[in-house]
Write a structure and sequence with these properties.
By secondary structure, the protein is of the alpha+beta class. About 70% of the residues lie in helices and about 15% in strands. The longest helix is centred in the C-terminal third of the chain and has 134 residues, at about 95-225.
Length: about 230
């Protein structure tokens, strides 16, 4: 029980000791003039652990004003001490320039991509406009063709009506011709009968004259004989 209490108390003490370090943690950058040493303690007598490149970003955990050293942590997680005067609160001008150059390059790339997309959109727009013009032309042609069809249909209806009228007139003419032919046959029969009767009458008259004329001659001779 006492052992567990001691471990718990030690854990709390460690947390309390690390709390100020966490509170003091702040980003910093190594000077852009040269590489600096990362030592195991805040003096030149301590061993060198790493060489930090100029412009590298690190995390400041503690600053010791008396020794002029700061406790830092690298991006790889290594902790050590460096001279505070070789730290900068912001990236170097060269790093900022590189960053701005990278951002500008990215922006140009994005701008090129946007220009490409804009070109593609414009191309699609032009294509759509051409299609619209083609469709409008086809529409005009179809409307013209439809008007011609309607006109032709109207003419066909008119012709059909005229044909019907002509057929009716032809039927009426055929009926009239039949009537005239019938009348002609009737007249022809009457004419034949007339000529037959006329011939018979002439024949009768000839017979009468043939019988009557000799008598007249005989009577005249008889008269002459008396004288």
């Amino acid at each position: 029980m006492h052992m567990m209490l001691r471990k718990f108390t030690g854990l709390i003490a460690c947390c309390l000791a690390l709390a100020p370090l966490a509170a003091l943690a702040a980003p910093a950058w190594v000077t852009d003039q040269f590489e600096i040493t990362l030592r195991s303690g805040p003096s030149t007598s301590n061993a060198i652990q790493l060489m930090l490149k100029s412009g590298a970003q690190i995390e400041v955990l503690e600053r010791d004003a008396d020794s002029g050293y700061s406790l830092v942590r690298t991006s790889g997680g290594t902790e050590g001490w460096v001279l505070t005067r070789y730290l900068m609160p912001e990236p170097s001008a060269r790093e900022q320039l590189n960053k701005l150059t990278s951002q500008l390059t990215n922006a140009q790339t994005e701008g090129s991509s946007l220009n490409s997309q804009l070109g593609a959109v414009r191309s699609e727009y032009d294509s759509a406009q051409k299609k619209i013009k083609t469709l409008e032309s086809q529409k005009s042609a179809l409307e013209k063709e439809l008007a011609e069809i309607k006109s032709t249909a109207a003419n066909v209806l008119t012709i059909n009506e005229q044909n019907k009228s002509l057929r009716q007139k032809l039927v009426d003419a055929d009926i009239r011709i039949d009537t005239l032919e019938e009348e002609n046959r009737g007249l022809s029969g009457q004419t034949k009968r007339y000529w037959f009767m006329s011939g018979a009458l002439v024949l009768v008259i000839g017979i009468i004259l043939g019988l009557w004329l000799p008598r007249i001659r005989w009577q005249k001779r008889s008269r002459y004989d008396r004288f």
